Amino acid sequence: MNDIDRVMQNAQDAFNSYKILTPAQRAGFLNEIAAEIEAAKATLIPVAHEESNLPLPRLNGELSRTTNQLKLFARLIEEGSWVEAAIDTADKTRTPPKPDTRKMLLPVGPVVVFGASNFPFAFSTAGGDTASALASGSPVVIKGHSAHAGTSQLVFEAIQKAIVKTGVHPYTVQHVLGSGSTVGKALVIHPYTSGVGFTGSFSGGKALWEYANRRETPVPVFAEMSSINPVVFLPDTLKQNAVALSKSYAASVTLGMGQFCTNPGLLLAVQSEALDNFLSLLGAEIKQIIPQKMLHSGIHASYHKALTRALSQKGIEKIGESEQEAGEGEAFPTIAKVKGNIFLQNPHFREEVFGPYSLAVCCSSKEELTAVLKQLKGQLTTTVMATDADIAANRDIIDLQTTLAGRIILNDVPTGVEVCASMIHGGPYPATTDARFTSVGTTAIKRWVRPVCFQGFNDNMLPDALKNPNPLNIWRMVNNEWTNAAI
Ligand code: NAP
């Protein structure tokens, strides 16, 4: 038995024990992980800062977001209605007789989570993928990201303390480090792996998806990969609000040195004097941004390469870049523009440049802007900046945007993703491998479950969520009516 076999055998053993815990026990475990991470904050933050180059205020905020996510999932499973219990009682008088059928969501089994480099806490070891999988009743094997291996190990130690304190199976969460193409691949193709969560590059996510689909028994890979998050600026708002819009857009493009999956990489508008004015204001804003170190040398090298390639395309024109020289490992914030007809002819312009860069596409007409939107691939977000008059005249543009992304935003920037029940952080391929799910917010739990129908079971054999007296006091669909009453 090799190391990965042992890890996955342990995970499978943990599944058999963990899946039968009560929701309150699982919630207690999630809350205890949050408490242990908070207790380790003074140790965690400096290590994460050293490894990721991210500023301390950002890391403090991200750590709180991580523990709040864990507590949010704890509340979700304590409330309990997320299991989508549906009950149709028997009717022996019907011809043919109707059986008693009861459905709920059950955990899939061991889940492999790849830590993301750009969120060392919130999308990593105890991040959203781990929290949602544990909430569902699935054990987790984390493949830590090498760019913050020390942080990942420390967070895992906090999880281990929570395991001991709450007495859950010792292998409910495991942590491995190593190369993606060896260790990561071996985890994904292992027969006991039931699902995979990933945030990172398109090539990485696609490779994991392919490993999983070539298995004898394919399993789902929920990979959040590549998105350029187009923002449409409509004409009236450009006339009315150019100064405020240029400031908020520049801040969004350069937030965290552009290392967010929701970074606005594309700006679309119809050519006008107001657009020229807005772009010169935007260029002036970008000049003032001070370059900062990126997450790791690989991401810095990728940014530099992708930016150089983008700026060497025919028809592109720089409209603003940081006035300060970039030091070693630092990203150079840049805004460029291109005409709509040139954009339409060159697929390179549609590729993600991961970092503080955005491309303005200046279209000759609304028809050309529509053609550009239609040509774009699936996105995590799309935004429309508009006045009421703009909205009245451009419903078709907004309808088109709704087909493009998992989240459509009106008059706000796409960076900043609220963790809540209504959030969708997902979108059509290649933004993710499965547009039906989100990786942020409580419905992220749906990635790690499958519906099971129990037919003809006695009450004492059913899971609590489906029993007649409704001991968990959850909302259920009983004979086509929502109720939390007993049967
Ligand atoms: P990455 O290269 O996709 O790596 C993420 C994780 O996946 C790492 O653990 C990596 O293992 C593993 N992996 C990558 N390729 C693999 C393969 N072919 N087979 C198995 N495992 C594989 O992402 P990154 O290191 O965070 O950053 C690299 C680039 O990804 C960035 O420059 C940026 O373009 C993009 N990125 C995008 C987002 C987004 O949200 N859209 C977020 C972060 C990064 P190793 O440790 O062996 O590399």
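qc> The two ends are 49 Å apart (CA to CA).
qc> done
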